[in-house]
TrEMBL record, chains A, B:
Lineage top rank: taxon: Bacteria
Annotated keywords: Lyase, Pyridoxal phosphate
KW Lyase (keyword) present: yes
Descriptive protein name: ornithine decarboxylase
SUPFAM superfamilies the UniProt entry points to: Alanine racemase C-terminal domain-like (SSF50621), PLP-binding barrel (SSF51419)
Amino acid sequence: MTDRILEFLRHRREKGLDSGPCLVVDLDVVRDNYNAFAKALPDTRVFYAVKANPALEVLSLLADLGSCFDCASVVEIEQALAAGAAPDRVSFGNTIKKERDIARAFALGVRLFAVDCDAEVEKVARAAPGAKVFCRMLCDGVGAEWPLSRKFGCAPDMAPRVLEHAHRLGLEAYGLSFHVGSQQRNPRMWNGALKAAAGVFRELAERGIVLQMVNLGGGFPTRYLKRVSSVRTYGDAIFRALRRHFGNQIPETIIEPGRGMVGDAGMIEAEVVLISKKSDDDELKWVYLDIGKFNGLAETMDEMIRYPIRTDYDADPREPCVLAGPTCDSVDVLYEKEPYPLPISLEIGAKVLIEGTGAYTTTYSAVGFNGFPPLQSFVI
Amino acid sequence: MTDRILEFLRHRREKGLDSGPCLVVDLDVVRDNYNAFAKALPDTRVFYAVKANPALEVLSLLADLGSCFDCASVVEIEQALAAGAAPDRVSFGNTIKKERDIARAFALGVRLFAVDCDAEVEKVARAAPGAKVFCRMLCDGVGAEWPLSRKFGCAPDMAPRVLEHAHRLGLEAYGLSFHVGSQQRNPRMWNGALKAAAGVFRELAERGIVLQMVNLGGGFPTRYLKRVSSVRTYGDAIFRALRRHFGNQIPETIIEPGRGMVGDAGMIEAEVVLISKKSDDDELKWVYLDIGKFNGLAETMDEMIRYPIRTDYDADPREPCVLAGPTCDSVDVLYEKEPYPLPISLEIGAKVLIEGTGAYTTTYSAVGFNGFPPLQSFVI
């Protein structure tokens, strides 16, 4: 929560423009976060994960600051280019790409692609001849609040074959990537993956293929309710692990922060629509907001991300509440298994401020589920 | 799957308009479904649940057929009115409403509102004086594939007080509603709720308040992989339960089908983007489509809804596959806990047809998660 955001919201309310939940993103915080990454990992190039928040103002600021961009689709590539990034600062980081989308990215000048299997290598070889590829490896996501599945990446012992296949098909076998899990709270989690990466580097070197780059992925956390370590702590832990496994031959490195870059730059203002009990002897209150899983807070799925919530009543005593969204969908409940403590004095019509919502909110919004519009967003 | 849908898709492909996943809805099926409901429950008014699919063509057809509309928001009310429904055929069925939205609905002519607590009654009394209200009761959702939580409704023994409160505040205490759970496969599930409803009718009659209406909710299933009973079977079971609990004084009734009205009227065509294995000794293939949880198939959440999938390779032997969507989000996996049997010969680039997708697909689509556009929709 920043003074600039609070000032913006106050002004919006005074103008009578206050017509539903909205996200406000403070670019000053994004700038500070970029500089913190650049300082904590000075020899690492930053590829901002566009999917976290593709607002043009955010991308333009980061392009100006010198950031590169990790893109999940051709649309995101176009957004990064429109924000001023040259195509050599763009990575097509999705391992699942239509061949015609690879061709479109190649035509736009993109030369760096993620792969995790032979079939994807073959698509890239056909549609983006001579491009650089990095192979994504599976990685244990223990310690992450938004866990990764086996969806992306191959087993580390399969990676050499995939990269050798790329090499044979005329691509540049450029490096490896992994992802330790979004909102990863343990800075030491990069160690195991880097050990595996160093093994793949050695194995391919023995076959005459010299990899150049390790993509350290994202996973850098933003502050929600629990304290997280500083970016500096992460940078130090990663550098130590690089030294441990690569010795004096530390490769080129890339990071792909998304949540860590914009999460704490944004705050959502929402409204209490209803407070009720289900029966007279019910101990839990239900508090319904005008924002829920389908218009911005999708990451409350399985109650994984627990956002800090501020109200004007925070000096008062609290009681555990079930917190739910406004739609007629029964899964549109934010916190129920672990009820959320809210002020007993909270009233229908009150505003609530939901912090740490700069990442993974706007783009998750449904186009119009139950007729509710997507989350509005303002970048200041 | 209908011939008209297949013909439309063939034509679209021949015209080269085939640029991503799309839903095609056949209005002939919607018409048949409406007529089946009208026939199975001849004394019951149909309030189509707009949230299931608010396409203008669907709403217009249903308005012409005489349907009423269950709306979750002011936007949905406006959609129903734009499709030709008079406001006396509209119910504002969401129990969670901003007071200013109740006032807007009232100004548009809506006179029927759902409530489930005193606070909501008070909002309706202020913003829609004299309107009819029905009180939603909690109902056990056993047997439903899309389970209902305690989010909507109050305990049946609280309902008389809520309706009495409405009566005292000058509203018309009109009736009760409940919802037996979406995709409810047991036609006898209405019995217990109707028993409770009859009890509330009696209790309020003793206090001089005569309720008129029971809103039987939705829950009518559409055919996915498992066989479901006919609408007629549901109608018979409901009528028997009404007779059992209300005797000769059967109240006015309403149903709110959504999935049962449009689910089997729609089919999605999608494309296989990638097929891979995670390691050489992996037994499971991963099959990635260009549609996933964030651009149409949100109801695969927790693998709850299991859609029938057709391919051109269906004569060939099958093997269990993990089925996933195209985004860089690890939760964008459709079926993994229970892998989906797909033809061994299935290839990258092949089209797949996903049946039963007329309901709860388009409006769940994210505005642009990972840069992927929302699901396209065609109504024919």
